[in-house]
Known about the structure:
Helix content is 43%, strand content 16%. By secondary structure, it is α+β, with helices and mostly antiparallel strands. It has one domain. A hairpin with a 6-residue loop joins β3 and β4. α2 runs antiparallel to α3. The chain is rod-shaped, with a radius of gyration of 31 Å.
Amino acid sequence: MMTQSLYPSHSAQGMLGFTLIEALVAMAIFTIGFSGLYFFYHLSQHAIADSEKRMYINLMGDRIIQKIASEGQRSVTDPLNPFNNPSQYSGSLTTCNYPATDNRQSWCLDLASNIGPFNPASPKEVRQVNVQNDGTGLIVDVTLITSSGSVGAYFTRKLRQL
């Protein structure tokens, strides 16, 4: 009858487990792989933030134009009609120092709260609304660009008076 020992022989005992070098190499490989995942996670978070800003800037530009168009529906004699006074809708949205009842104040505050405050140190950032009456209608230009210049929107529409 052959019996097997529950304990390995002395020569096989040296083969069990890992050496310190093997464990350190495995940890180094894991660290390199994990840092690569973290790098791509950071890039994806940045892309998501830019996408959110791009979506908001597009919505904001459309909102500005729609507000000017709806104000153009006012009576021809109404001083708030942009066809009578287009300059009251034109201006920079970089500093929110308009009166509380001014549309530009709410646009500026919305931009500051949703895409961040204006960065005067960045030459690429633009927040501008221009409205001109060319005699046949209003030309509305909206330019919104973030400080890095990576996210921006340009809108131009011609509005005719009904």
